[in-house]
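agent: user wants the structure for Uroporphyrin-III C-methyltransferase from Roseivivax halodurans JCM 10272. delegating to structure tool.
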Amino acid sequence: MQHFPIFVALAGRRVVLSGGGEAALAKLRLLMKTEAHLTVFAPAPAPEIEGWDAEGRLRLVRRGMEPGDATCAALFYAADEDAAEDARTAAIARADGAMINIVDNLEDSQFITPAIVDRDPVTVAIGTEGAAPVLARAIKAELEARLPSRLGMLARVGKGFRKMAEALPFGRKRRDFWADYYFDAGPRAVDGVEDGDARDSAARALDDLLARHLSEEQAPGHVSFVGAGPGDPELLTLKARKLLDAADVVIHDRLISPEILELARREALMISAGKEGFGPSVSQSDINDLIVRHVSEGAQVVRLKSGDPTVFGRLDEEVAAVTAEGLSYSVVPGITAASAAVATIGQSLTKRERNASVRLLTGHDMKGFADHDWKALAKTGEVAAIYMGKKASRFIQGRLMMHGADPATPVTVVENASRADQRVIGTSLSALPADLAEADLSGPALVLYGLAPRAAEETVTLMSQQEAL
Ligand code: SAH
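agent: tool returned. relaying tokens verbatim.
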């Protein structure tokens, strides 16, 4: 983040602008929404500026800027639309101690003005650090359409009602009440009502709404076991998104990417129940207790697990802990690492005439390296997605070769599948441990036994065709 967004209190402060054309007008229209004391320096001002001066909304000085003109100014805008003049005025203002903005010159500006959605006192500022003004405008248009047009008025009325709303218990109940007011009952109450009566109408809606919410029973706690997918936030389900949006408590695995955690409701209590194959971890029974405690207290809990919660996720133990206490739960599937990894290499998990079944294996279990039906897996064409297989690769290789697997069987390891730092290592059963050691993977990795990246496979086919010729 190159620019840190803040809201500056400008009431009673001095703001100086140099310029009298289109750029100056655009900035002044925004600045006049504040209670700043505006001074404009312009030898040839647009008629609008003269008008605003006459109305006393700003002070117009009909000459170019000179040293000392920006003394005590909080902000300065260079808006002459002339690089040399802008540089001159900006240097003066800088020497006078003001923070400067040069219109359309990101590099030499100390601050920039965002695109603004104005529902005073609710203000949304959108910035792209100059990277994509078109995008900022598109987001602004979308928000303008989405936010009730009288949101500002509703917020002012709502502010006076905050004490009353404390009759509702803190947390979800109170939050639901306000969401209902701002996005449903409030806009409905003022829809089509004239400005003069709208405030009374909104205040009445608040009274009714509070009575209704006070008489409702608090919904019981609930836990959703939610799959967060392999890491790319765009691979979350809509359901996962919604639940994260509404959660009181999020208990998440260590593997969940920060971008996904960002999506949780700001006020949600975030608990990292870090579990790591071989590293420090929170014990399973502590995690179970944590879930049970929060659900019993009436919270909407999201138990966020990487990939799909039903794949090597110890879901059953957590569900058993919850049902033993008579608490309610639901499971929301996610995209498992195997799906993400094969998507990355352009392959299918199953393929006609190659493999009619696929195995999801774990490299190690509670007792150490996990044993499997190696003999069945060693047959030609078999495919397995091996989770937690990094450390077990030599063991897996040994078992498979012992049962007659072809040492040339393709193996692909996908690290950080679907994430920005994903890596693909195409290897073979015989070279797997050595290639893995050399790759020195630090992220979660999925071993795809029996599959090569599609591009590599095509090269091989091509080569054998050439040999045939
Ligand atoms: N429930 C998860 C798996 C949890 S076990 C799922 O459905 O994906 C943890 C293992 O999953 C890791 O050791 C790794 O083998 C695999 N894994 C999880 N995320 C991954 C990713 N983004 N890329 C590759 N492998 C991943």
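agent: one observation worth passing along. The mean pLDDT is 91.
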